[in-house]
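My hope is that you will study the protein record below before we discuss the fold together.
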Amino acid sequence: MTPAAPPADPGTRLAGGQLRLKHVLKGDGRLGHDLDPRDRAPQDACGVFGVWAPGEDVSKLTYYGLYALQHRGQESAGIAVSDGSRILVYKDMGLVAQVFDESVLGTLRGHLAVGHCRYSTTGSSVWENAQPTLSSTEDGGLALAHNGNLINTAALAERVPAGSTRATTDTEVLAALLAADRSKPIEDAAADLLPQVKGAYSLVFMDEKTLYAARDPQGIRPMVLGRLERGWAVASETAALDIVGAVFVREVEPGELLTIDERGVRSRRFALAEPKGCLFEYVYLARPDTTIAGRGVQATRVQVGRRLAQEHPVEADLVIPTPESGTPAAIGYAEESGIPYGQGLVKNSYVGRTFIQPSQTIRQLGIRLKLNPLREIIAGKRLVVVDDTIVRGNTQRAIVKMLREAGAVEVHVRISAPPVAWPCFYGIDFATKAELIAGSLDVEQIRDSIGADSLGYVSLAGLTEATTLPAERLCRACFTGEYPIPVDELRVGKFVLEAKA
């Protein structure tokens, strides 16, 4: 694992060929993830991307693949590359475009790569926990990136050799266990280990010569395989394949391990498939231009809006979305109801991760940092406002108040998901049940709390039907509290390994 030549300002070189950048500014994320710190939205899972393509600029392919997946994780980013004889990992805190530039990518040369953009679900958001993670094996190195969240991390961590890891993530535990089995090739070690791993995981990993991808038996988090002109790519979403010019081949099946090298793609089953794809991917997580299980996410969200109009009709003058999360469902609601669709709120497209700590005065402006009403459009109107979820209710409360101040005579809120009343243990960082407004209040109480004239959530049956998948093939735990993989809540949590340490 000899490191490649570093760029002009490489930062600190660590063991195993990893580089820690020192010139990248760190964002606090408050305006992007936490517009209102009291009403944190569901944080996305992570994005993973892998490519095997001799003759291609794999670091740039991975960069653009991660760029397409940036919505899934905005805390850190990293890329590992190999030229066949050595692995180099480059990662740091921040967005993909903050971590990587032309000079950095120019040093990451090889024919295969894996990349990751992270939102932390196990382990703190610190550099040591950024991915891909790198471990030493009998024959060289192993770089691994993970989307999802394990529920038996603590038990697995007890098997990790002492002193073999500094990180506090389930990803590091997986990498350490794979690398520790020195009696087998990585493919065989993975096939033996993965049946013992419980929870949600879509993995991309590599040694110096081979790319691997694996998905948990339930297929909770998405993963797809694509064909490049001179190779192959795997990614969390089809949108990432599109941006690098890869042709979608198929989904990586639940319980499947793929091996990709000069011999092509080989498939191996390590567990029987028990499909339970995440229903919330359709609601919020996935890009609208992504396809899941043969169904476009945009089409699903528009259909949910139509179902909302059927289930919760109202007399109104205008349907407006909360941009952009509510836009597809608002289009569907308008089409089905016959009420005109319009833009009543303008989003500041440049509000994202910020390097400036907001002052108290600015923070009190709250939602106006991100959204501003078009008074001439909404004044005197009865509005239907469509959004995807209500978490604690603070954001919707602020929007309703802002619209009334701008002259709206009625504000009817419609939500394109059922009430989220249960936490997720499989890779989405929701608030706790006690913090979720639907965990303690019924619909009428929530309506009163946010100050709307009426409030309607799409039914669970309506949302499920829009996906075109049967209910038994979906994980709907955040809406029902019925978890497809039994969870010992005393043995899970974001800081389970840090608490143990």
Q: What stands out?
A: Residues 1-15, 19-37, 494-499 have pLDDT under 50 and may be disordered. Residues 92 and 99 are 6 Å apart (CA to CA).
